[in-house]
Design brief:
This protein is α+β, with helices and mostly antiparallel strands. Helices cover 34% and strands 34% of the residues.
Length: 295
């Protein structure tokens, strides 16, 4: 009987992060999948919560979670190919759940590469429900015709801009203002920048950039007020943000788009982004998860 050791990740040294990265690469290669567990978000302050599973001091399992709204946990995880179907991930999940319960998490949202047979099999056994699919896109090269000057001004958001940000985001994405306000409060890390887009000094949209490290930036929350949509502002805002990021010497610029949103996909591709991988998202309530893991 193999004896596994599970512990919460507290060592965020380069050596320990590299162990997680190595396991990620082993799983990616074995599964021929686009697995990405958010290694960049593992840090001592403001990072994801994570648990590690060891066998004979060898890292064989990993799970991490974070919440943007205080009620739903976004989950990432992996198990070494040689140690699957032995209860490793269930054990990790139970440890994570015990922590999530103390923080009043109500549901879990699992991200699974669409081409990961092992991941999809696990989700099927878990009984989680499919929510959506997203393409992860990387900027290959900003197309030359996008480099022309734009009449849209981007500036860093300040405290007085919060009201506009809540209005713009909630109206564009269909979320409640209370949820949106809570979301912005929970995603206010120093490395995450919010920019207000203005046309003739009038705010018309916004965009956010999460600088994961010196090399990698993730664009998200691009939105335009409904009254200002269909005027080409979205493209101008995105191009402006990309130029700002390039000025920071970031070599990797990522964003995600729902696979069914062909309009946004076409926009991103026209600027120079390419699809790197596809992820499916599955959701289950904490109560259903607890009941399932009892069996």
């Amino acid at each position: 009987m193999r004896e596994y050791q599970i512990s919460k990740m507290k060592d965020f040294s380069n050596a320990e992060i590299e162990r997680v990265r190595t396991l990620e690469q082993i799983c990616r290669t074995n599964d021929r999948s686009g697995l990405r567990v958010g290694v960049e978000s593992l840090k001592a302050i403001g990072g994801d919560e994570a648990y590690l599973c060891f066998f004979n001091n060898k890292l064989i399992g990993f799970i991490s979670w974070y919440t943007s709204d205080g009620t739903e946990a976004n989950m990432n995880g992996m198990v070494h190919p040689d140690f699957r179907r032995q209860g490793v991930f269930n054990a990790l999940l139970k440890r994570a759940m015990s922590e999530m319960q103390t923080k009043l998490i109500e549901s879990c949202r699992f991200r699974v590469p669409s081409n990961s047979e092992s991941g999809l099999e696990f989700i099927k056994n878990l009984g989680a429900s499919f929510r959506t699919s997203e393409f992860s896109m990387n900027l290959k090269q900003l197309k030359e015709d996008m480099l022309k000057g734009t009449d849209i001004m981007l500036r860093l958001a300040e405290e007085p801009d919060l009201g506009f940000m809540v209005t713009c985001s909630s109206q564009a994405f269909g979320d409640s203002e209370s949820w949106t306000r809570s979301y912005f409060a929970r995603t206010k890390e120093p490395e995450r920048m919010s920019y207000i887009a203005s046309d003739s000094l009038t705010p018309i949209g916004m965009i956010r950039v999460n600088y994961l490290n010196r090399d990698t930036a993730v664009i998200h929350d691009l939105c335009v007020l409904p009254s200002q949509q269909d005027k080409g502002f979205g493209r101008k805002i995105l191009v402006g943000a990309v130029q700002l990021i390039l000025e920071q010497k970031c070599s990797i610029i990522r964003l995600a788009v729902v696979t069914s949103n062909r309009r946004a996909l076409n926009l991103y591709q026209s600027i120079g982004f390419e699809v790197a991988s596809e992820f499916n998202y599955y959701v289950t309530s904490m109560q259903a998860l607890k009941n399932n893991l009892k069996h």
